[in-house]
Amino acid sequence: MDKQTLTTIKNKLLQDKKNLEDRLQQFANKDKDVKDNYRTTFPDYGSKEDENAAEVATFSDNLSLEHTLELDLRDIKKAIRSIDEGKYGICKYCGQPIEEKRLLVRPTSTSCVECKKKLKGEIK
After folding, report:
1. pLDDT for 46
2. Structural domain boundaries of the chain?
3. DSSP for residue 81
4. In angstroms, rounded to a whole number, what is the distance separating the alpha carbons of residues 108 and 103?
5. Are the C-beta atoms of residues 31 and 39 closer than 8 Å to each other?
6. For residues 76 and 30, is the Cβ–Cβ distance under 8 A?
7. Residue 57's CB: how many other CB atoms inside 10 A?
8. Would you say 94 and 100 are in contact if contact means Cβ atoms under 8 Å apart?
9. Tell me: the pLDDT tens digits for 21-77?
10. Which helix (H) or strand (E) holds 39?
11. Which pLDDT score is estimated for 124?
12. Cβ neighbours around 55 below 10 Å, total
């Protein structure tokens, strides 16, 4: 992969990382005790029964969203680290280069299309 494409991908990853961190900051705080973890804050809408129900529903939704965003953030950080170490774009299953088009569309990909299809049972 040429340097310009790699730079493009890294810049996209860095922007995606910032966007995810910004989204997480809207409803969660960084965990002081666990690296790369966030803690969803419990909203306070009031003390009426319907407000309490809304708080629980929002908190539950935010916990699920937090988990999803943390996983995405983990994958992005792993891809950035892989770029920095010069190991980016290699399929973790077959050891072959991942197609550039695939990485431009999904820069956190760790497998080539053929291996992914095998994993999903689409080809044998």
Report:
1. 81
2. 3-88, 89-124
3. H
4. 7
5. yes
6. no
7. 11
8. no
9. 999 999 999 999 998 899 999 988 888 888 889 999 999 999 999 999 999 999 999
10. strand 38-40
11. 67
12. 16
